[in-house]
Amino acid sequence: IAGIPVRITDTAGVRDTDDVVEKIGVERSIQRAENADIILLMLDLSRALDDDDRKLIDFIKNKKWED
To answer: I need a labelling partner for 15 at 20 to 30 A (CA). Which of 28, 48, 60, 64 fits?
Structure first.
């Protein structure tokens, strides 16, 4: 964008799971979020927010930004 490289990544949903493969996807999503400069969170508001949604919102709002 205007000469600045941008990488947009769609990650797996972040939630508690017992499924081994899904757990790997969740861990990768968290790693990407930890290393991201900008995070765009999209939620399905056709349903009520659950605990997983709230944890993710808290993670994002508490992310430390470097200058």
So the answer is: 64
